[in-house]
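Notes from the 1:1 (GR / supervisor)

We went over the backlog. Supervisor wanted to see one worked example end to end before approving the batch request, so GR pasted a single chain during the call. The sequence is below; no edits were made to it. Supervisor asked that the structure be written out right there so they could see what the output format looks like.
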Amino acid sequence: MKISKNRIFIKIFKTMFLAIMFFTTVFTIYSISNQKAEILKSLNLEAKSIAKMLIHISSDAIVLDDGSYLVEFNYEFLSEHELLKSVIISKSDKKYYQIKKDGWTFEDKIEEVFIKQEKNKASSRIMYSPVLEEEVFHYVYPIEFSGTKWGYLHLSLSLDKYHEKINNMYLDFLSFFIVLIVVTIFMSYIIARNFSKPIINLNKIANRISQGNLEHRSDYRSNDEIGELSSSFNKMISKIQHSQKELEESHEELENRVKDRTLALYEANKELEEKSNELKELNKKLDLKVKEELNKRSKQETLLIQQSRLAAMGEMIGNIAHQWRQPLSIITTAASGMKLEKEVGVSIEKLEIERLSSIINTANYLSSTIDDFSNFFKPNKNKVDFLISDKVEQSLELVYASLNFHHIQVRKEMSAKNRVYGFPNECSQAIMNILSNAKDVLVQRSIENPEILIRTYDKDNCGVLEIEDNAGGINLNIKDKIFDPYFTTKHQSQGTGIGLYMSKMIIEQNMDGTLEVYNSKKGAVFKISIPTIKHNV
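Structure output shown during the call:
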């Protein structure tokens, strides 16, 4: 069996090897940690026994403060004990005896690192000793007699045996690990071979069968899942072999059916070609009908625009009538006065000149009014930037006389500063349509103290205009229809129903803005939003 070609063997081998090595490594790390802890525990016990013995023997000298005995006894004990490196007796009265193998000293203080280890209970750790200038196992034991604390005993033990035991332990574990790797490789090989062999044999048979040789069968027999797979595989091959024979028999029958179907398909294609020709003719007729309908719609839109202009002109004529009524009255009054004075013979030249000046000024005003109305209907060819507030003022000038005639008060709250981009005259037409619509509703409903509120402001990169009346709002049943062409709530003699429709087309299709309506507490609010340009006024 060639291992390099058997991928299933390699996978099983790797899985077994890594699993065994993983658990063994975890166990080894755990064992090393325990061994280290046991070695330290043995050092701790030895230090504890030494400390208890020294304190017991030196108890009288500690109580009586016999320094010579403490130094002499501990120095002699230190010289005879190979493991012990130094002894420090830290008394509660701040007297310190430092005893080493090469001598002793009496100090009034010791290193801070030793004082930090002085606690109510015995403590120990491996640390660097500034007295011995080497790493030691330092043990601190409290000195107590009859419930009175007399100080602390510091013992520094050599780490030579500790390191020796650690090194021996590492060497033992290394030897164990090497042996374990060899055993693991051998076990992984045996287990992988036993598991992969039947699968590999089954794969070889499958490859031969895939090449068209259906006579091969698996000879693996076992009561495990692979044995069941081998048995099922053999049954499947037998069924495939049987199906292949049936397939060969049905192939001949299928060829005969194909011939019959080919003939039927030829006839169907011929019929389909005829239907296709009929469909082409139908499409040609449909194209002609679509073009006719488009022409009709174009004519209808042209007619609608013309009707809108005529309606706007009719509205404008009414505004002109209101605008001219007072100036014409002034001219008539002045002329009548002059005629009467001439007839009576009481004409005064100075008064005549004043009245003629009044007639000339009033005529000039009427002329400028004609210019305003004529410029209003001139369409803009190109988009330009303009202020919404300017167009509001222009529209109000044209309908002011009509609003004043019906005693309609106009309030303005205009704070928009950014210029919008579009067709100014078309925007004025849309504004005037909305103002006229508001005027008609206020007059129709006979509103007491009629009022129109005009607001302009900047929001979300748009210039916004809101025109609000106090006529009570729009009926919710017709709110969705008021922008439809030819829809009106006025009498046929008063409205065509295309003013709001054309206003919406101007704002949304020509100027990329929006025109919407909603009801406030007082009445209807028509809201126009037009995109602004980058710079400010």
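Supervisor's comment: Confidence is low (pLDDT under 50) at residues 491-496.
Batch request approved.
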